[in-house]
Amino acid sequence: MRSFASRHIGTDGAAQSAMLSQLGYGSLAELMDAVLPKGIRAETPFGEPVSEAAALAELRGMADTNTVRRSAIGLGYHGTVTPAPIKRNILENPSWYTAYTPYQPEISQGRLEALINFQTMIAELAGLDIANASMLDESTAVVEGMLLARRASKAKGNVFLVDKDALPQTKALLEHRAAAVGIELREFTFDTIDAEGAFGALVQYPASCGLVRDPSPVIDAIHAVGGLAVVAADLLALSLVKSPGEFGADIAVGSSQRFGVPMGFGGPHAGFMATRKGIERQLPGRLVGVSKDSHGMPAYRLTLQTREQHIRRERATSNICTAQVLLAVMASMYAVYHGPEGIREIARAVHESAREVAGALKSAGYELATESFFDTVRFSAPGRAQEIADTARERGVLVHTPDADTVQVAVDEEWAETGVADLLAALGIEAAEATAGFGTELARTSEFMTHEVFSSFHSETALMRYMRRLSDKDYALDRGMIPLGSCTMKLNAAAEMEAITWPEFAGLHPFAPLSDANGSLELIDQLSDWLAKLTGYDIVSLQPNAGSQGELAGLLAIRGYHQSRGDEHRDLCLIPASAHGTNAASAVLAGLRVLVVATDALGNVDMDDLHAKIESNRDSLAALMVTYPSTHGVYEETIREVCDAVHEAGGQVYIDGANLNALLGHATFGDMGGDVSHLNLHKTFCIPHGGGGPGVGPVAAKQHLAEFLPRDPREAPLEVDGLTIGAQPVSAAPFGSASILPISWAYVRMMGESGLVEATAAAVLAANYVASRLKDHFPLLYAGENGLVAHECILDLRPLTEATGVTNDDVAKRLVDYGFHAPTMSFPVAGTLMVEPTESEDLTEIDRFIDAMIAIKEEADAVAAGTWPADDNPLVNAPHTSEEIVGEWTHPYDRTVAVFPAGGVGANRQSQAKYWPPVGRVDNAYGDRNLVCACPPPEAFEV
Amino acid sequence: MTEMQYTKDHEWIRAEGDIATVGITDFAQNSLGDVVYVDLPEVDQEFTAGESLGEIESTKSVGELFAPAAGTVVEVNDAVADDPTLVNSDPTGAGWLVKVRFSEQPEVLSADEYAELTK
After folding, report:
1. Which terminal Cβ of chain A has fewer Cβ within 10 Å, N or C?
2. N6-(pyridoxal phosphate)lysine occurs at which residues (chain A) (predicted)?
3. Residue A912: pLDDT band by 50, 70, 90 thresholds?
4. What CATH topology corresponds to A43-49+537-749?
5. Residue A394 burial by CB count (10 A; 0-12/13-18/19+): exposed, middle or buried?
């Protein structure tokens, strides 16, 4: 029987032998001996692999020990009915989940359209002008809203007002995050608003207790002092109650979870953020806009990218890079499927159910805490709250107890569908006449989701075809290789994906009693333990729901550690010039100052500069952040010396785990001197990129930092308004994006030590093979002293650009005509392409890529030789659309050259991989200068 | 009209009486690429040497407008805010950014010295 590893790793023994002989090595082990610095090898003793069936059986066993009861907890997480066509055609469809972030717009029009639908839906429901393409979760979106308010506000104060009745998990997160950046939080109730010295205010709408109230008093008070109002709103409620924008809010945030995305014990879900006009250039996260292509037709792209951390580095005001694209796409399709009237109907049914519950409670003699509510009812039960909750739980229903005298129940789409009889029975009360909900003065009268996309696909047939039409426009791993350097686009195996939709994992509320989550917790504990072993650390927190959040958690831990030792003055973070921009942005948000260390001609840390900077900042040195192997794809020989020098001066070493897939099974961060790292489960450990999220960014550390990391609620519980979470949170949910952890669990389990060791070597082999075959055509920017690279290689296109005028952009777009996703462009060095084939590609596909690159080089040479004019050739005109080649043809080269450059239909394998881009090259400048971030009117597409 | 002078931050300065006009050089606009947005300071804003007076965003990058010396903003070029392409098409003319009154002498380079810097 073939092992899972042999399915995951694309090259078999024969292919590997051929590749090794190209490089002059006899075996994978010999290659790894040559490429890895001697001093860093470390064993990671680890279990043997199991088969796919056995791994799934183990997962099934764990799932069976979860107890999924009906949730009436609410607090930002609600039961929802995922439409089956969306589950099958998006969540379980590799065309959607294996795509990358849409940096290359020409091959991403499908998900860009879905995302602009999401933005349009959010902006209109919020009553604001512009929404981004999603945030990590509601609570982190509130933090980003606070930071946005601070930078956009004219007020000078450093106080942020926080609604006493905000979600408990949001309040805890704000506490941890505000302290690091010197923001003072001031809690208020509607009777005690003191806006003096404040730059912003948060209102929860409806309130955490369920109360629907007019947020105007807060909004007016903060505006009076020149500050900005942030409203955290419930998306479903907004279809019935007045929108934040209508009350004058500047920023609205929240979660789109209840639009068809399962609770999943905490995530992933798409948070959202919308703002009024005038502050859109300060928005964090990804933003999709409309531009036009080379034929003048509308085309979508990511817009205003210069706002983002990868460009602004330490000047960035947010470290968010990832969105939650897959989940935002699901929520947008939920809206497309139901339409505005359907959404209103669901909301009305939920509201009606809540009114029934309120009526029954009243009739049973309970006093309601509020008479104005949407879906959440709080009632008083002096001294009996726990007893009521326990009884309800025995009867299969979970409720929330804010304190010993109060109980709170929230209904949702699932309750609306089944009726609330079981809920009433769980509470021991009888049905009675429904009460009123909220007053008409707060009822929504404005329209939303008026664009025709929200009223065109309400039958399943229409929706199925719409989703297929969009996915057909996109290039994902199900079409061919995505050789993006630093992004690790390896296989996301179907068996790994299997368990994420099981109701036992998908149906748990994040604040369900932990004894209901035995299976999920067992999985979390095992995965944490494995990741600790594989990285040489003592402790792992799986809570951070993106790499950027893992970085932040690690840096906050370093800061906390120094402070605990009385070293408040240690606030300087050294970061090599070659680092990913997010490093610097995260450091700033952890309250650290950034000092850049030079890199030498080979891309390595400049040791002289490092020693000099450590020496002149000995007293203030907090940390060094370094990526290993480096962002240039090289194993630096000096890594131990680097770590020792930092430790000797009293600093901590943060090793960025972005490139862990080049080390796994061969060396560990802990052993080489790291104190803390974040890992990217969406790179090394096979969680699919989802078209731009979800990611998971666990933070792993040595024991001395453990107490400063996001804490497990089982070990360091933090009580907030009756809710138990873990101390020092960086995400809304205690275990982050728990529902996708089975993917990484399954990968590690099915690979075992032997599989992981081989995967790393196979990835290194593939990168070196590409480098070796392409180095005579494109200079290799960096290599180690042995002439070898790690798991990726940088091709320097600048000499080609100088000689021929052909840019790396032209090469990237021409690769689309050859049926490829472009490699990473201009990172870490402008004018270059970084190629990472990963271990999952087979030799045929790797060779096809190499041959395409060589052919493109020949085309560039032909331009230089004058065969084709510099402004009219297959490169500058790339990519070519089908519409273009059936139209009038005026170019000095054949149509076949344009669209079948590696041979015509049936000539070779090329034709099998033919991908047709739906648009020509997208005009970046036009889109940035003419900002449009909502669905364009249908007339825009008329020729 | 007086001669144009330059700074090591790739800005040009042209003094007329006690008012100096400041913009970015052709070299700078060329390195930035297509300029899509210009963020300018408020009139009457006072600044110190080296302070950022605004940002020039292209599709790929962000450049800062550094104050060459301390002073006060007298006028900003609203035409550039409306049409950022002016920075690319006419960086030393219609694409000027701010007029300022310096309270100290900026450190400047001559045309030849600047040409040497960008060689």
Report:
1. N
2. 683
3. low
4. Aspartate Aminotransferase; domain 2 (3.40.640)
5. exposed
Range of the domain at B101: 5-106
> For tokens 């469809």, what's the residue?
A93
Q: How many domains does chain B have?
A: 1
The CA dihedral of A203, A208, A210, A213, to the nearest 10 degrees, is -10
Q: Span A743-769, mean pLDDT?
A: 97
Our CA-based measurement puts residue A316 at a distance from the nearest CA of chain B, in whole angstroms, of 11
Contact flag A929-B37 (C-beta cutoff 8 Å): yes
pLDDT given for residue A45 in this prediction: 77
Mean pLDDT to the nearest integer, A759-775: 98
pLDDT score of B1: 53
**Closest residue in chain B to residue A312, using alpha carbons only:** B62
Pairing of strands B46-47, B71-76: antiparallel
Amino acid at A593: R
Q: Mutual orientation of helices A741-774 and A52-64 as an angle, nearest 10°? A: 150
Q: How far apart are CA A868 and CA A862, in angstroms?
A: 7
Q: Measured between alpha carbons, how far is A833 from A778 in angstroms, rounded to an integer?
A: 10
Which residues partner with A677 through β-bridges?
A: A655, A700
A/B interface, count of CB pairs below 8 Å: 32
**B97 near B66, Cβ under 8 Å?**
no
Instruction: Identify the weakest region by mean pLDDT among A39-53, A411-425, A449-463.
Output: A39-53
What ipTM was reported for this prediction? 0.81
Q: How many CB atoms lie within 10 A of CB A46?
A: 18
- CATH code assigned at B87: 2.40.50.100
- Which H, E and C letters describe A779-810, residue by residue? CECCCCCCCCCCCCEEEECHHHHHHHCCCHHH
Q: Indicate whether A906 pLDDT > 60.
A: no
pLDDT tens per residue, range A481-518: 999 999 999 999 999 999 999 999 999 999 999 999 99
Which one-letter amino acid corresponds to residue A612?
Answer: A
In a domain, B114, yes or no: no
What percentage of chain A reaches a pLDDT higher than 70? 99
pLDDT tens for each residue of A849-894: 999 999 999 999 999 999 999 999 999 999 999 999 999 999 999 9
Residues of B in contact with A925 (CB under 8 A): 34, 36, 58-59
What pLDDT digit, counting tens, does each position of A363-389 carry? 999 999 989 999 999 999 999 999 999
CA angle (A585, A588, A591) in 5-degree steps: 155
Q: Treating both helix axes as pointing N-terminal to C-terminal, what angle do A28-35 and A741-774 enclose, rounded to 10 degrees?
A: 80
Query: Is B112 a domain residue?
Result: no
Residue B119 lies in a domain: no
CA dihedral for A796, A798, A800, A805, sign (positive or negative): positive
Residue B69: inside a domain, yes or no? yes
**pTM (2 decimals)?**
0.96
Instruction: List pLDDT tens digits, range A538-548.
Output: 999 999 999 99
Do the domains A94-333 and A754-929 sit in the same CATH topology, yes or no?
no
Nearest 5°: CA angle at A844, between A840 and A846?
A: 60
Q: Do B85 and A929 touch (CB under 8 A)?
A: yes
Q: Is the peptide bond before A879 cis (omega within 30 degrees of 0)?
A: yes
CATH code, A94-333: 3.40.640.10
Per the DSSP assignment, residues forming a β-bridge with A376 are: A410
Best probe of the B interface among A312, A313, A829, A929, by most B CBs < 10 A, is A929
CB B90 within 8 A of CB B80: no
Residue with tokens 């902006």: A123
Task: Identify the closest residue of chain A to B57 by CA–CA distance.
Answer: A306
Distance CA B105, CA B97 (A): 19
Domain residue limits, chain A: 43-49+537-749, 94-333, 754-929
